[in-house]
Design goal:
The structure is a homodimer.
Chain A lengths: L5 H11 L8 E3 L1 H7 L2 E6 L9 H11 L2 H4 L3 E4 L3 H13 L3 E6 L4 H9 L3 E5 L6 H12 L2 E2 L6 H17 L4 E5 L4 H9 L4 E7 L4 H8 L23 H10 E7 L1 H15 L5 H12 L8 E6 L6 H8 L2
Parallel strand pairs in A: 2-10, 3-4, 3-6, 4-5, 7-8, 7-10, 8-9
Antiparallel strand pairs in A: 1-2
Helix pairs in contact in A: 1-3, 1-8, 3-5, 3-8, 5-6, 8-9, 9-11, 12-13, 12-14
Chain lengths: ~325, ~325
């Protein structure tokens, strides 16, 4: 297994330029006062498509050999990865087939279709998305764009970290982790920073993996409002990088995440989805000593429906 | 009367550097698709203090002679100007007295006090804030920082336009107008852009002034959710600039503003207060032909309470 390096992240940065946007790194007085640190928020909610996923999808498609790329791409996703791959495919002028569960959020199905992708739905309980995908890929010569366990996807997500490092030299970075594409990519891009991986309670496989020394899985069926962080387990590549680079894992309950969404609303004036607010919750309530440090928080996305957002504002 | 010029805006930009932040100019695919234009949103909700007012307050305080400045400043305000002046004064290490109505929003009273300002409250009905302010200013030698009708305040607000012009060359700019400090400053900074001033229904004094050819006032007591745009009339300076530079005035009802707040939530992932969303409402529903144009929208602030925001999300 070849692990991606910071050089792959640098190559990715060149490839995604003009497609993914360079998101702002926000400063906020209230956040500094609340933590005693100098805090910068990488606002990936302001990324094209509303989440960091555009970075990896764009890099993975750009990295395909032209003759393969023109045949089109395939992805499995119920959420932001579907939107990211379909958006990137549209910008490259190629076709995309996205295999999505029939019960995926309607807004995500609609957005993916609006991007011109062919959406193939399946029944989560009765059908295998892998079998559907393999059949389609074989028939049409489509290239699979994995959601996280791929060197080009990891390097693409890492460009968020590279951009942070071009503006500041963080001592500590809070970043959400589930499949681990973003957190591992950012850790490669910022080799001198202490990486705090953030997980929602009930999906704390990385914390348990660090405790047991072997890769753990999440039990099926446990819910969290952090709908972007419900992967069953890390990938082979992301787990290797995590072991080498994550200093620790902070596990936060949903109510802390809701309070962080509200803080972002009241103080930062940005809309964060639960998964995007989890690192902020981890900074504010996770018990990590950050006093006097330069801290970066990766606010990974803002794709949240009004109902969930209102429940956070009322919390 | 000497009107400020683009050179004053350039001087202001140098003075506010490192105090007010350079806010991002956001791009969004959905906004382009909805309008047929290439739209950029100047996200002043991400400004220090959550609104553009920091720019003018900082420039006005920086412009004071040092021996005057050290005696402290005075402002009248029930809202964002109070927060801006108190924040800027704190950063300059000088004292600030803010005369605020006793029934001002508690969060704004608290924030102003938390910035270290001395808050003097008065009864809107029974007392004159001008008399209270004049007495305090005379006794202590405080300099009054006006909310809009001051060349340094106008030049300071104009730095938002200067930053837009450093990144794009907009054909059309949508900007909120009430006292007119921001809109007139931005118009000075972008001399080649068509300026569309945006007003809330019920407070359409500028539209009526343009129709009648003389400066009109708003009737007292008419409410709008755009609480940052309820000034009785324009100032002498801002009205002169408006006559020369505003191409037209768009007047929007509150329900269109609520829909724009919701659009900003769903698509832009930023929190806008009603006054900050009004220019977006004017772009989306104001009937201005923008097809094929490069458009800038000044989203002036994000200081909104949860209740008002929820009412917009439910609209």
């Amino acid at each position: 297994m070849t692990l991606p390096t910071i050089n792959d992240v640098r190559v990715a940065a060149g490839r995604i330029k003009g497609i993914a946007v360079r998101t702002p790194l926000l400063r906020n007085d209230a956040l500094d006062e609340a933590t005693g640190a100098k805090v910068w928020v990488k606002a990936e909610c302001l990324q094209r498509g509303g989440a960091f996923k555009m970075r990896g999808a764009t890099n993975a498609i750009a990295a395909l050999a032209p003759e393969l790329r023109k045949r089109g791409v395939l992805a499995f996703s119920s959420g932001n990865h579907a939107i990211a791959v379909s958006t990137a495919a549209k910008l490259f002028g190629i076709s995309a087939v996205i295999v999505m569960p029939a019960d995926a959020p309607k807004i995500k199905l609609d957005t993916t279709r609006a991007n011109g992708a062919e959406v193939v739905t399946y029944d989560r309980v009765k059908e295998s998305r892998e079998a559907i995908g393999a059949k389609l890929a074989g028939e049409r010569g489509l290239s699979l764009i994995k959601p996280f366990d791929d060197p080009n996807v990891i390097a693409g997500q890492g460009t968020a970290g590279l951009e942070i490092g071009e503006e500041i030299s963080p001592d500590i970075v809070f970043v959400p982790a589930s499949g681990g594409g973003l957190a591992s990519g950012v850790s490669l891009a910022l080799p001198n920073a202490r990486i705090i991986a953030c997980e929602p309670a009930g999906h704390d496989d990385i914390a348990r993996s660090f405790a047991s020394g072997k890769r753990e899985r999440n039990a099926p069926g446990i819910r969290s409002i952090c709908d972007g962080l419900l992967t069953e387990e890390m990938g082979d590549i992301t787990y290797e990088i995590a072991k080498a680079r994550f200093e620790r894992v902070v596990v936060m309950p949903d109510d802390a995440t809701r309070r962080a969404m509200k803080f972002a609303f009241l103080r930062l004036k940005i809309v964060l989805e639960p998964s995007g607010a989890l690192p902020l919750a981890s900074l504010l309530e996770g018990g990590v000593d950050v006093k006097g440090k330069t801290v970066a928080v990766v606010a990974s996305g803002g794709n949240v429906d009004a109902e969930t957002f209102i429940s956070a504002l009322n919390s």
